[in-house]
C-alpha cells in the first residue's frame, strides 16, 4: 500500500530511542523527511545515522520538549530546513511510578508538563503550517492507560487521560482543515522504558517497536484521512475494556 508520505515532512519528538525512534524510522522508510528531537545528542546522532544508512532523510535537533520555548523552535527548524511541515508525532518519556495518594503536587505538575502540555504546545505551533498546506496528520504517542488505568502509574494515568480529552476536542476542531488528530496507545513493547519500570511485572510477549512505528506511519498516511479522534490501542489485547 502506498501511504502517500513520500515528499512529506514529519516532526517526531523523543525520537532517539524506543517507540519514538521506531515511528521516525517508519515514516522515513515511507519517504518522509523526518526532523527528530531528544535531549541526548549521541543517541540522536545514532538514529539519524540509522535512518540515512537505510536511505531516508533525517535531521536531528537536541532539545528538551518540556521547555515551553522548544516546540515553536522545533517547528521553525523543520520548516526552515524543508520549507513545509505535514506530520507531527508528539512523544515524551513517561513519568515515574507512584500511587495515587502518594504523589505530591510537584510530581503531578511535572507529569502534566511532560505528558500533556508538551503535545499541546507542539500541535499549537505546528497547526498554522499544516493549515497552510491544506493537509496534516497529528499523532500523539500515549499509553494504554488512556483506556484502562495502570496500577501504580497514577501520574501517567492522569496526564494521558487529560491529553486524550484535549486531543479528542482538537480532532473535531481541525478535521475541516484536512488535519487529523489521533492517539496511539501502546501496551508493553521491548523498550528501555518498559525495562526501567520493572521486569518483575512484565509477563507474556512484548510488542516489537518496529511494528508499532508502522502503525503510527499508517495513521499519518494519506489513506487514513478519515480516521480522526481515535485512541488506537496497540497493546496485544491486554486492555480488557470494550470501549
Low-confidence stretches: none
General form: globular
Euclidean distance between termini CA atoms: 29 Å
The number of distinct structural domains comes to 1
Strand content: 15-25%
Helical percentage? 40-55%
CATH class: Alpha Beta
Q: Could you spell the SSE succession in H and E letters?
A: EHEHEHEHEHEHHE
Mean of the pLDDT scores?
94
Helix-and-strand structural type: alpha/beta
3D structure, described in words:
- This protein is an alpha/beta fold and 243 residues long.
- It has a single domain (9-234), classed as 3-Layer(aba) Sandwich (Rossmann fold), CATH 3.40.50.
- The protein contains 7 helices and 7 strands.
- The protein has helices at 18-29, 41-53, 70-82, 105-133, 154-174, 192-197, 209-219; strands at 9-12, 33-38, 57-62, 87-90, 136-141, 179-186, 231-234.
- A 7-stranded parallel β-sheet has the order 3-2-1-4-5-6-7, sandwiched between helices.
- The longest helix has 29 residues, at 105-133.
- It is globular and about 50 Å long.
- It starts with 8 loop residues before the first strand and ends in a 9-residue tail after the last strand.
List the helices and strands and how they pair.
Layout: E1 9-12, H1 18-29, E2 33-38, H2 41-53, E3 57-62, H3 70-82, E4 87-90, H4 105-133, E5 136-141, H5 154-174, E6 179-186, H6 192-197, H7 209-219, E7 231-234
Parallel strand pairs: 1-2, 1-4, 2-3, 4-5, 5-6, 6-7
Amino acid at each position: 500500500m502506498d501511504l502517500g508520505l513520500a515528499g512529506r515532512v514529519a516532526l517526531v519528538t523523543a525520537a532517539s530511542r524506543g517507540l519514538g525512534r521506531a515511528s521516525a524510522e517508519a515514516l522515513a522508510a515511507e519517504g518522509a523527511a523526518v526532523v527528530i528531537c531528544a535531549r541526548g545528542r549521541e543517541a540522536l546522532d545514532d538514529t539519524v545515522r540509522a535512518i540515512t544508512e537505510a536511505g531516508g532523510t533525517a535531521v536531528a535537533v537536541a532539545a528538551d520538549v518540556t521547555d515551553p520555548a522548544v516546540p515553536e523552535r522545533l517547528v521553525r527548524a523543520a520548516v526552515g530546513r524543508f520549507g513545509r511541515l505535514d506530520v507531527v508525532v508528539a512523544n515524551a518519556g513517561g513519568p515515574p511510578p507512584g500511587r495515587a495518594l502518594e504523589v505530591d503536587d510537584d510530581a503531578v505538575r511535572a507529569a502534566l508538563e511532560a505528558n500533556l502540555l508538551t503535545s499541546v504546545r507542539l500541535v499549537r505551533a505546528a497547526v498554522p503550517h499544516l493549515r497552510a498546506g491544506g493537509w496534516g496528520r497529528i499523532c500523539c504517542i500515549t499509553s494504554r492507560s488512556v483506556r484502562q488505568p495502570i496500577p501504580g502509574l497514577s501520574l501517567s494515568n492522569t496526564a494521558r487521560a487529560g491529553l486524550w480529552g484535549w486531543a479528542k476536542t482538537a480532532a473535531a476542531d481541525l478535521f475541516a482543515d484536512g488535519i487529523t488528530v489521533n492517539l496511539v496507545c501502546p501496551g508493553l513493547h521491548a523498550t528501555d522504558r518498559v525495562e526501567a519500570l520493572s521486569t518483575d511485572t512484565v509477563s507474556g510477549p512484548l510488542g516489537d517497536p518496529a511494528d508499532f512505528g508502522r502503525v503510527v506511519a499508517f495513521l499519518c498516511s494519506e489513506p487514513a484521512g478519515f480516521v480522526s479522534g481515535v485512541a488506537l490501542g496497540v497493546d496485544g489485547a491486554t486492555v480488557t475494556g470494550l470501549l
